[in-house]
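Hi all, long-time lurker, first post. I run a small reading group and we've been trying to get comfortable going from sequence to structure in the token notation. Rather than ask abstract questions, I figured I'd post a concrete chain and ask someone more experienced to write out its structure so we can walk through it together at our next meeting. Sequence below, copied exactly:
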Amino acid sequence: MTKNNLILFGFIILKFILQYILISPQYDLHRDEYLHLDQAGHLAWGYLSVPPVTSWISYIIMLLGNSVFWIRFFPALFGALTLLFVWKTIEILKGNLYALILGATGILFSCLLRINMLYQPNSLDILCWTAFYYIIIQYLGSAKTKWLYLGAIIFAFGFLNKYNILFLLLGLIPAILFSTKRKILARKEVYFALVLGLILILPNLLWQYNNHFPIVHHMKELSKTQLVNVDLTGFLKEQILFFIGSLLVILSGLYALLFYKPFKEYTLFFGTFIFTFLIFIYFKAKAYYVIGLYPVFIGFGSVYVSEILNQGWKRFIKPVFILLPLLLFIPMYNLAFPNKSPEYMVAHSEKYRKMGMLRWEDGKDHHLPQDFADMLGWKELAQKTDSIYTLFPKSENTLVLCDNYGQAGAINYYTKKGIKAVSFNADYLNWFDLNVTYKNLIRIKAYDKNNEELKETSPYFESAFIRGQVTTKYAREYGTTIFVFTKAKININKRLEKEITAEKNYIKND
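-- Answer (accepted) --
Happy to help. Here is the structure in token form:
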């Protein structure tokens, strides 16, 4: 093993170690993770929430035992591969060992440690952006057709993981048109590659068509409830924080793309950055959607900085650029990760508030960062639901109906009784088993302080009572109530069919 490869291996091992130690055991999985894991039992070419790739990975995790180790492993792996592609990009750009270490350090000690701690499509999305840009650099340097087809495959895989990668294409095309490389678009191989990409994503497009394009409904809901709270100042502030330790390196990379002669072949990347960034701003995208844009510019910047610092007295400040990401990561270690107890965060809330971390998607400040509050109370909910479920004989089919996908997914993940909880929320809308005649109902209800559920539903059952609540303090699900209704006086299945149809029609016509 060469010296360079040995150092690269060390960075990758450190990456995995950090991802496993940055989350305290007192936190559960995140609400989104439960939904993604449940998709393993419902494989399809599309879902109301995400494209299909996440379900494929979830299926692998399920085959491996569905343990937290493997749930943490895959986002960590995608983060490690992102680092690897930046390393390889620097090698293509003829960067020396210092450039390689500078780029790897910038990627390692960055917001990717936060992104890669959760099993969500975001980690793979950033990897696909980085890999696609690597392919473009390879093609610009060699003009070999194989890179076009590999690019089409990576883009299609990224599309089937998260539609966010469309922004990459929207920013790249005008950048090519306004560059000296526009003649590339006259090559027939480019369009063959586009056809290949279209063929690969076609099953998902057909699924969207057959299901009345739920992505449109999803984006409208996102716009109404979350994107409406995105402001430009906050958006730009977060961009600075994502790779704050490598900010000078990124800016150096953008400068070098215009004025550094060895990068003359890659000038279109400057236009790619500008166009993509402006498109994100125009659509009022969430700040983290942009993260996939940055790793490749850390690659460009690392090579340029390494050349500049090789001259005269500047050599003495080379360690500063290496240490900067690490030194700026130290305060972030104490703030940006669920490695402190909820009680500690509440007691020291001011420093979290100053960083804007207590502001949720509703635009308001809360006790904990939203992601952390979404990692509490799930085991408690599942255990209490399990204990209630055992009270009913198997001959009396009992439906566990939840308010949201987090509740349903958590119960299904932790259950020891084989519960298949459902909800009218997200993908669970398509996962009801209506071949079973239900006699009893366990209703999981959030934000029901006046017990309205008990008043509304009890007339349809012989008995009704409250069996428990989520008492985990500071959990987003704090106060979620478990209602129990036994011996239905009505046909529950017909009511379910009516509700499911109404919800699907709403999605269809929205």
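A couple of things your group might point at:
DSSP finds 23 helices and five strands in the chain.
The mean pLDDT is 92.
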